[in-house]
Amino acid sequence: MMLDFYYLVNLITALAVSGLGYRTVGMEPTAITTSPVARLAGDFTSSLSIQVHMNYNAASGHPNSPYGSNTMVADALAYLNPGGIGTGIGTVRDTAFYSNAIPGLDYIAGLGYRLDLYMSYDAQHSDYSAQYAALSRFVSSGFVRVIEGGLEVDGFRLVRDDTYTGLNGTRYTGWQAAVAMQMDLWSRFHSTVPVALFSLATPSNGHANSPAVAAAKKLGTSLTEIANYGNVHFYQANGDAPASPSGGQLAGVIASETGYTPGLPFMITETGFNDIHAAGYAGTPLVDAKYTMNLLLSAFMAGCALTNYYELFDENQGYSGSEDFQDHWGLFNDNGTPKQSAVALHNFLSVISDRKAASFKPGSLKYQISGLSPLNGHSLLFQKSDGSFVLALWAEANIYSNAVPRTATTQTVTVALPGIYEIDVYDPMLNAAALAGRQSFLVDATDSGHLTTTQSNTVKVSVVDHPILIRITDKTAVTPTSPPGRDHLGLTDIQK
């Protein structure tokens, strides 16, 4: 990661949403009646991924890193798949660059997880032959979901001062090096697996007139001809909310980093929250737990095909001083126990988790929402393959701006339905603090934050700064529709 660039960009865009989550004149809640076709719950869970660093192990001089224990990795991944592999976060991201990481990646893939593999900077071999060989082996084994171009090519020396030797034997420098590598990845792999574009460290380098566009043109191609997906890295600065997909910081960074891939769907291949205050980032375990769920919902609503959360564990790499924050991006502590973010996400996924069912067609549900602010309130209707609906209600509120705790406005929201339904209400944060840090979390942390069950045509909930989930069960209320078209990843058109 090259995080200082994100701090500068997000600090500027933060000004536009600095009041997010607080009452504004002229933006009072109104009642909204809607009858949407639900999004498949399985499509949402399929859009989630998690970052690992399997090269952080004893062979690389880091015997205390949690990534050195396959058991700890497997337990943590299982916790994020409450109903079994594929019902939660079933995709794992890493690089195949490091030879000492290959056994760990083989282990993860052997469990049934799919891999998102990106190209790492290689200062020793300008032809990147070892990485291509490793990628080819993983692809031929059927383990790979998607391949990405070079990692933050404008930050890790490739564009700045290094060379790339292409399959044609030509040595390239600058932006042509990044584009030539992308061309070679495309020619090798796109007929077998999807290929995402290289990622950026500086979001503004993704604009329509980027030097990358000129480099591609000089090489006789365009960026949209050598990628299935655009690629976004998004890190929220200053302890602010990730914001909504309409006008907030998330939308702004997406627009910046996909300006040179018009018409392509996109992935967010790195995003996450740090739970200390350093390098322009600010968070706490509690704040990050709330922001994490909001971010994953907002990214999905924005059309993101795959959102990769950075990362599974705190790294325990021994960073110090100004770099100490690099050790604190994990959902789990470096001893393998869950932070509040992991517990809340587990609870959240326990309610919404579902396996993709090719034959299931999502239906519609008519309902009215009142009391949810149009300024920062959001709702999204999902349907599970058992026919039940899950309505997610959440508010994007800045609750830790500049590392200063703030209390968001409580919104009393009423959902009215056209008939009597069985209604279950869940707050994923309910047990997050109590269960965080427990060694026995895989056995004990089974409560999904269930609050109430009732049979009624209305339900009233309090929405503050994180999602509330309402499960609505009545199979006779389903109105089948034709299934959306699907892309290389099995994701629907409505996610693009």
The gross shape turns out to be: globular
- Overall mean pLDDT stands at 87
Structural class: alpha/beta
CATH level-two architecture of the largest domain: Alpha-Beta Barrel
Number of domains: 2
Low-confidence stretches: 2-26, 244-248, 477-496
Residue share in β-strands: 15-25%
Query: Please, how many helices?
Result: 13
Termini separation: 25 Å
Q: Write out the CATH superfamily name of the largest domain.
A: Glycosidases
According to CATH, the fold-level topology of the largest domain is TIM Barrel
Supply Rg. Answer: 22 Å
| Helix fraction by DSSP (H/I, runs of at least 4) | 25-40%
**The top level CATH class name of the largest domain:** Alpha Beta
Question: How would a crystallographer describe the biggest sheet?
Answer: 8 strands, mixed
Beta-strand segment tally: 18
Explain how this protein is built:
- This protein is of the alpha/beta class and 496 residues long.
- The protein has 2 domains: 3-24 and 42-352, Glycosidases (TIM Barrel, Alpha-Beta Barrel); 367-482, Golgi alpha-mannosidase II (Immunoglobulin-like, Sandwich).
- Helix content is 25%, strand content 21%.
- Strands 1, 2, 13, 14, 15, 16, 17 and 18 form an 8-stranded mixed sheet that branches.
- The longest helix has 17 residues, at 285-301.
- It is globular, with a radius of gyration of 22 Å.
- 54% of the residues are buried.
